[in-house]
Amino acid sequence: MAGGAREGGRSVTSKVLAILGAFDSAHQQLTLSDLARRSGVALSTAHRLVAELEAWQALSRTSDGRLRIGMRLWELGQLAPGRLQDMAHPWLQEVFASTGENVHLAVRDGLEVLYVDKVHGRRAVPIVSRTGGRLPMHPTGVGKALLAYEPDWFVQAYLARKLERPTPHTIIEPGRLARELASVRAQGYALTYEEMTLGTCSAAVPVLVDGRPVAALGIVIASRRARELHRLVEPLREAAEQIARAAREGSGGEGHGPGRA
Amino acid sequence: MAGGAREGGRSVTSKVLAILGAFDSAHQQLTLSDLARRSGVALSTAHRLVAELEAWQALSRTSDGRLRIGMRLWELGQLAPGRLQDMAHPWLQEVFASTGENVHLAVRDGLEVLYVDKVHGRRAVPIVSRTGGRLPMHPTGVGKALLAYEPDWFVQAYLARKLERPTPHTIIEPGRLARELASVRAQGYALTYEEMTLGTCSAAVPVLVDGRPVAALGIVIASRRARELHRLVEPLREAAEQIARAAREGSGGEGHGPGRA
DNA sequence: CCCTCGTCTTCCGCCCAGTGGAAGAACAGG
DNA sequence: CCTGTTCTTCCACTGGGCGGAAGACGAGGG
């Protein structure tokens, strides 16, 4: 082909998707060159495709000319499954109303937790998680709550890898983590103390439908108030129970959460 | 070309976008054939593109095989601008906490209002609006609050069209609507009584930054409780003022809302 | 049971849309 | 003025995309 060998035949669609996929929470705005580099698409090709995406509002530009995800994609994204989130939202609200803390809902996706909803007021928001964000499972409350109820083979596979260690308090020893998970199962809730972020600690409970952990409900507070965590478990547990009930009744098996294994 | 004339040369990208664009709140799940029809893409082409989109989780399938927007697009959508929404959320929360009603935040996009955030509890949710949803401006509280502060040429253009009439209470006479908007400006808030949906009424206030209506904050309740609306205006106004202040300080002109004219 | 109708999937040869290197423009520092 | 970076435009070549058609599948219905 003109200018050189076409690199092994990528479809146009794959290039468009690669361009979109170049954005993530750590790279919310990119220059055209960055975008081309990150997506592995030739600069001139990226230029053309980006123009088309921009015209459709799939991408937009910040005031300094960098590219971002556009409103149209946000709008489309709102049409994604989300049955569980919709049902759960009022209950998160309830927990927030009775505690005033940061409450969030997460599901497992692959080997990570994906935060699907979040309710927060104005006080002490250490921004540990953001809606649409991902974190590893073992250093987070919701992650431990979910992991503890996964089948054994899954947990084994999870523990077999080298685990990230965001803070010195993170538990990464397989044996110790396995024991921790056992106690989560025994108690019905998970606690963390500065395992993901220094300065914050959390409590979380799983949402169990037919014994399977479809989501987890968590709460995050400043670590100097760690003693209050126990007081917060009961409201969480109650809300999770209600959400589970609503999920059992509400949806007759419609695929509502993500579920890559 | 094989099979016949290529219809005027549409780019691959435009087809992909047409496929995504075929989904909207009234068509959240589609069969492949529907999708091909609605997007104007040949069936076999749609089949191939959809397969690629599905593999990337841009689309997913419901249990009965129909296609939906996938989790990956939801995730991407969460990276869209949203500065204003993020800042505003705690204040919506505050209004909800003090009133217990359905509170939502909307911006203008073209000739419609786009709902960008919503907080609701378990009681009386007539689901008038959904996050990511659009409604015409004149029958909604937030719409009137926004329209009242738009420049005159814009309002004229809006009124010049034939206006939809979702209920018999909807005001569609240009003269009457113009007078209504004048009184919104005078009072600083807008009220509606069953103008969008029978059985519900609403109050809304604009969020004004440098005199320009960047968003509107609204509340919806059952119409049998219409007398309580006045009581709800003050909390709304207060929250809107705080949001406006935060917006003025927080962002130095970054493009955060949509703004097609 | 076969037939019909609608939907989904696969196939295949043609050819134009897409491609990417290169050159040039625009801009920012130094 | 020069240098480095990013953005934009150009162009000749070609293989990925195209869509009609035919086949597979499934759900009624007679």
List the SSEs and their pairings:
2 copies of one chain form a homodimer.
Chain A: H1 12-21, H2 32-39, H3 43-55, E1 59-61, E2 67-69, H4 71-77, H5 83-99, E3 102-109, E4 112-119, E5 134-136, H6 141-147, H7 152-160, H8 174-187, E6 190-193, E7 200-209, E8 212-222, H9 229-250
Antiparallel strand pairs in A: 1-2, 3-4, 3-8, 4-5, 6-7, 7-8
Helix pairs in contact in A: 1-2, 2-3, 5-9
The structure holds a DNA duplex (30 and 30 nucleotides).
CATH-derived architecture of the largest domain in chain A = 2-Layer Sandwich
Distance between the termini of chain A: 40 Å
Number-wise, the strands of chain A total 8
CATH superfamily of the largest domain in chain A: GAF domain
Note the beta-strand portion of chain A: 15-25%
Name the structural class of chain A.
alpha+beta
Q: What general outline of chain A do the C-alpha atoms trace?
A: globular
Q: How large, in whole angstroms, is the Cα Rg of chain A? A: 21 Å
Q: Into which percent range does the helicity of residues of chain A fall? A: 40-55%
Q: What is the assembly state of the chains in this entry?
A: homodimer
Provide a count of the helices of chain A.
9
- By CATH, the topology of the largest domain in chain A is Beta-Lactamase
Question: Can I get a quick summary?
Answer:
The structure is a homodimer of 261-residue chains. Chain A has 261 residues and is of the alpha+beta class.
